[in-house]
Structure formats: C-alpha cells, structure tokens
Amino acid sequence: MRTSGIFILLLCSIALYLPAHADPIDPFDSVDILGPATATLATYQGRDCNGTLIYNHDDSFENGYIWAYGGYQPPYYGAFGEGFDMGSGQIECVVLWLTQTGGFYGQPIDVYIWDGGVSREPGNVLTVGYEVVIEAPAMWPEISQHNLPLPFFVHDEFTIGFWGPWMYEAAQIYIAVDSNGPNGNPWTNIAPEYGPPNGWQDPSLVFGPTASLGMGLFLIDMPTPVKPDTWGALKSLVR
C-alpha cells in the first residue's frame, strides 16, 4: 500500500513537468475581419474579358476577410474559394473583388481552380496561376474588381479562389464578403493547427455570417443552360 502511494506521488510529480497537450490555436489570432459595414464598388481593374460574368453575390458587400501569419501555410492553407456548377464552358478570367487597409505593396497571389465545391468540398487542383500580380486594391470600405486571366475548360462543378503566399506576415489584401445575399458556395481552407475542424470549411465557422465571397468568372462557349440546382445567380456586367 505504501509502495502504491509512492508510485502515485511519483507520477503526479512527473506530470507537473510534462508539457500539457496544446489546445488548438485560436484562429482569431490569425484572422482579420473588416466589417460589418456597407462597402462601395469603387473601381474596375485588369483586362477586359470575353464571355458572361458569373458570380454568387448580390452586387453588395458588407465585410472583408483574410487570414494572416500562421493562417497561411503550404500548399494552400488559408485559401478562399467560391464554388460554381455552370455546366460546360471555357473560363477565360477569374474575377476577384478585393480591398485593403494600406498594407498592400505589390505582393502577388496564386489563383486556383479546384474541382468540386458545390455538392462536395473542393478537391483536386485543376489549374493554377502562380504569382499573379494584381493592381493595388481599393481602400476599405471601397471594393475593386480584378479580372485575372486563367483560361480553363470546365464540364462539372468547380471552385475558383486564391491563396496569398505570404506566410507569417500581416494581412495584405481582403476578399470582399456578401454577408446577407443569396447563399453561394463559400470556402476557406483551415490549417491543421486551427482545427478541428480543418481543411475546407464554410468561412462562417471562423469569420461570421457569410453568404458568398467576392469571386466570379467570365465564362464563354457555354452550350448548356445553368443547372437549376446552382445557388449562384448569372449576371452580365455591361461596361
């Protein structure tokens, strides 16, 4: 009995010097949220793109999100994406609605197209444009539209998005957010340290109410109509 008591005391003493199992990192240490506010679509930047402009938001934005510091990790943890299912067609440009608070100094971004994103989470990378240089986004609460060429033929659901390869730095640009419009298919890829849950998740889990993100595309050669189960609206931008 005395031996058992000594053994228990020894275990307790050792436990005092063992490092405790770390809880998941608070994701709010590495996120930056601008809103809520009513943003203004201020400027249009980038090349003119052929085709029909497609997006899920309602032409208004109430917030801006971005990961920062450890929230960005290879291969593309910290990415944001928006899912679409438009049938078959040729993507000519990925469109991002962005803003900043003054920290942008020309950092490039990686622009992605993944498969999936409507009936399931984003999956394999279909194509990527590395180190895409964008013009300086508008200053919050203004939003600027950026047309980024990334030609790719799609025939099923897909997700467009971007990743900022600026690990362990402060936030540089923010993706515009529609908080109260029709439901789209927004995604963010949460790094393992910030879960569970991690991987591709609804941004609402971390950032708050999110109907859709400021992401769209120009689609050409679309022989089939929009599928009825698509959340997004199809809209044309006349300039």
Automatic annotation (TrEMBL):
Keywords: Signal
Signal peptide: 1-22
Name listed for the protein in its UniProt record: Uncharacterized protein
